[in-house]
Amino acid sequence: MKNLYLNPYIFFLLKEGKTYVWDYKHHTQFMLEDDYFKRLKEFSQTGSLTTLEISRIDHELIDGNLLSLKPYEKIEWKWDELGLIYHIGTQDVYGEDDDDNNDESFIKNYYEFCKRFTPHEEYSYISYTGNKITLPKPDLEKLDNSSILKAMKERMTSRYFNGTGVSIKDFSTLLFANFGPLHGEWEELKQKNLKILGMRKAHPSGGGLHPIEAYIIVFNVENIPAGIYHYNVKGHYLSKIANPCSYEQLKQVLCGQFFGDGISFGVFLVAHFSKVWDKYVHSRSYKDVYLDAGHVSQTFLLTATTLSLLTWETAWFKDTKVSQLLHINGISVAPLFFLGIGNGKKIAVPQRLHNLIKQESN
Ligand SMILES: Cc1cc2nc3c(=O)[nH]c(=O)nc-3n(C[C@H](O)[C@H](O)[C@H](O)COP(=O)(O)O)c2cc1C
């Protein structure tokens, strides 16, 4: 008697009249004849079966690591299969020869990789044609004498805003310092006569590609009509995308969270995946785009805190509704995070929520 175990890291794909099995841990895929699919299906109840003798089909499935004579390790995972497939399926995606420890061959391989995947055009900026609002020069001096430790200690997620405005100077400074070319041109690359395919900002970004763009909802910013805008990085101006959005509309797309009521403006960090996927061809890089968003978010929050503004942030929103609001397609261009900025009180637990908690505990 032999025990046979089903590889737990597989899913099936029906495409063009064929059945494929995809081992997302080992990055292998096979087209399955019906007999093989039927055999694998027999394992679906318990993940293992006992057999008197190993058939030819079983042998082949063992060879393909779809079945094993040894049990697979237990998986600790509390989210759904979809999350597991992405989590595991984007691990260890690099080829075996990448493990070569020789610096010379690493450099050669890396250079070849860059030549193969890097687009030929210079870094491309996202630009909209809507009405332009020119922003004043940023006031970087305001940030010059600040203490990073002070900003780190003072930053907090506030959930009470009073609707008062933000000066256009601070608004402009915040956008430039966090999304603009703070360092100017990429001098080192220029000096080395290299093609400039990325850019530098206050926060790092995979390949310098900076896929995160700022889409801004203005409620109360000096000299800027309420509305929805895109921040043009190259020209340091806003392009109008849509008419004003009310706090009520914002709350609806933020799943009912009223914490943003009274913010002066909000920034949706929106990923333009197409900036990344020609160079980083594996979907593992989806994670890097989120990392980019995390970096810009923290820099933005610290800058706003330094300018004595209060901040709130959320990743909890209805993606499709946000995309409709921002007039983006939601797939290749998709919202990842929201930053709310304004004045008010440093309160983490809003009064209405606190009242309920107190009521319950009485
Ligand atoms: C990825 C991420 C998602 C968050 N989502 C929400 C959210 O949906 N709603 C909210 O009110 N706060 C949200 N926050 C804020 C956290 O609740 C907050 O950072 C945490 O309570 C710690 O407080 P502090 O930021 O003042 O240190 C989020 C923060 C991060 C980094």
> How many helices in DSSP terms?
13
| CATH superfamily descriptor of the largest domain | NADH Oxidase
Global shape: globular
Cα-atom radius of gyration: 26 Å
- Based on secondary structure, the structural category is alpha+beta
What's the level 1 CATH class of the largest domain?
Answer: Alpha Beta
Please state the second-level CATH architecture of the largest domain.
Answer: 3-Layer(aba) Sandwich
Number of self-contained structural domains = 2
Helix content percent band: 25-40%
Number of strands: 15
Give the amount of beta strand, in percent: 15-25%
Biggest sheet overview: 7 strands, antiparallel
Provide the list of bound ligands, each named once.
flavin mononucleotide
Low-confidence parts, pLDDT < 50 over ≥5 residues? Answer: none
Order of SSEs, N→C? EEEEHEHEHHEHHEHHEEEHEHHEHEEH
Mean pLDDT, all residues: 95
For this entry, give a set of tags.
362 residues; alpha+beta; NADH Oxidase; seven-stranded antiparallel beta sheet; three-stranded antiparallel beta sheet; 13 helices; 21% strand; globular; binds flavin mononucleotide
Plain-language structure description:
This protein has 362 residues and is of the alpha+beta class. It folds into 2 domains: 88 residues; 228 residues, NADH Oxidase. 33% of the residues lie in helices and 21% in strands. It is built from 13 helices and 15 strands. The strands form 4 sheets. It has a 7-stranded antiparallel sheet, sandwiched between helices. A 3-stranded antiparallel sheet has the order 5-1-6, with helices on one face. It has a 3-stranded antiparallel sheet with strand order 2-3-4. Strand 10 and strand 11 form a beta hairpin. Helix 6 crosses helix 11 and helix 7 packs antiparallel against helix 11. The longest helix is centred in the last third of the chain and has 22 residues. It is globular, with a radius of gyration of 26 Å. The relative contact order is 0.12. The model has no long low-confidence stretch (mean pLDDT 95). The site of flavin mononucleotide has 9 residues, from strand 13.
